[in-house]
Amino acid sequence: MSRSRGNRAWTVRGIARALLPVLLALTALELVGGLALGSFEATLLRYPTLLVLVPVTIGTAGNLGSVLAARLSTAFHLGTLQFAATDDQLAGNALAVVGLAVTVFPAVGLGGWLVTAVTGTPRLRVETVVGVALASGVALGAIAVLVTVVATYTAYRLGLDPDEFVVPVVTNVCDVLGVVVLFVVVQLLVG
Amino acid sequence: MSVWNVAVSAYRSVLPTVGVSAVGGLIAGSILAGMEAELAAVPGLLVVVPAFLAIRGSVYGSLGSRLSTALHQGLIQPTLGDDTGGRVRAAVAAALLVGTTASLFAATLTVVVLSVLGRAVAPLSVLGPVAVLAALLAGSVLSTVVVLVVFVGFQRGVDPDDLVGPAVTTAGDLFGLLSLIVAVRAVLWLTGSLS
User: Fold this and answer.
1) Are B22 and A56 in contact (CB under 8 A)?
2) Contacts of residue B7, Cβ cutoff 8 Å, sequence gap at least 6
3) Residue A163: CB atoms within 10 Å
């Protein structure tokens, strides 16, 4: 029984069936981020430095969320996690994520500006780019914490395995919100 | 442990991974910034980019963790010559199939949504082939990267679980965007010469 199940799990059809439904749903979700990106395409093409920041903003937001999700899931499995603001694991990991966002994003902004400076003439001042990256980082750090805690708590209430549910949901939601935050920050700081 | 101790230890252990993937992301960003011509030539391409990259990450990340779990269980061997029961081949074929299907789905949905919103978008006869070709190109490279990283990691005694995630995100963004450039140029060249 378990042997035949194991074999079926290794057919192209079996694997595709297990992966495709969730992937199509997440793809539709990612398109929301794509639409946000498309809505300020003109600004992005005018200032290529901002285009350089797009994948790294999306990626870092998703990364921070998935790291926090993985850590909370482990603490949850070990029984060392309580859903209270006073919980050391929760507060400490959340603080680390915000700290990472605040330190990594300005470096990313500077890096993005340098890339454009090397390959051409940047049309934005370095302070503006670092400011855009820092503001996006602060907002995304807070969002990553909020989304992860809500998703982990939902998994816990619904009795789902946090590893299977929380990490993909958090990664994709943070991806989408990464673009949305970048859009809002660019509107405010670059115009 | 106090809150501060938890925070400092978490910060230290995560910083290298996040830092490396940020550098990878900056390289991917430079490629994206160099795609101005392609983005202008195919309206709607930028809208597909996040979905396209996320599909790569999730399909080939899942291929990596599937292979690494199977290695730990002894279901497959870490050599290319001995693919017992064709399991590695089946897993790679499924990843290519699923990744291509989802990419075509993303392209179709983009054309539909942008048309409904009344925004400029390339026809599905352009965006569809671009998505499929790019998915196959990126998929071939990423399958090779994932299989090699998992097998070599396993042989060297490194837990593949720790390698696959960062390797796939970084390689996925780079090869995903490069494949999109190649696919756009190929499709535009073909349709240009045919029409």
Assistant:
1) yes
2) A91, A92, A93, A95, A96, A99
3) 15
> How many angstroms separate the Cα of A25 from the Cα of each of A93, B9, B112?
29, 35, 16
Residue pair B114/A38 in contact (Cβ under 8 Å)? The answer is: yes
Question: What would the pLDDT profile of B61-113 be if each residue is shown by its tens digit?
Answer: 888 888 888 888 888 888 777 776 788 999 999 999 999 999 999 999 999 99
Residues from chain B contacting residue A168 (CB–CB below 8 Å): 58
The residue extents of the domains of chain B are: 20-194
Between helix B160-194 and helix B3-33 the angle, nearest 10°, is 20
Contact B122, B43 (CB under 8 A): yes
Q: What residues of chain A lie within 8 A of the CB of B114, using their CB?
A: 35, 38
Nearest CA in chain A to B49: A34
- Are B49 and A7 an interchain contact pair (Cβ–Cβ within 8 Å)? no
| B77 close to A (CB below 8 A) | no
Domains of chain A: 22-189 (1.10.357.20)
Residue type for position A117: A
Contact status of B143 with chain A (Cβ, < 8 Å): no
Q: What is the pTM of this model?
A: 0.84
CB A81 within 8 Å of CB A75: yes
Identify the CATH number of the domain defined by range B20-194: 1.10.357.20
SS (H, E, C) A126-139: HHHHHHHHHHHHHH
**DSSP for B143-164?**
HHHHHHHHHHHHHTT--HHHHH
Spatial separation of the C-alpha atoms in residues A171 and A64, rounded to whole Å: 8
Contact of B54 with chain A, judged by CB distance below 8 Å, is answered with yes
B6 → closest Cβ in A28, A59, A88 = A88
pLDDT tens readout for residues A18-47:
888 888 998 999 999 999 999 989 999 889
Within chain A, where are the H helices? Answer: 2-8, 12-39, 41-46, 48-78, 88-119, 126-158, 162-189
Instruction: Please tell me the distance from the alpha carbon of residue A175 to that of residue A184, in angstroms, as a whole number.
Output: 15
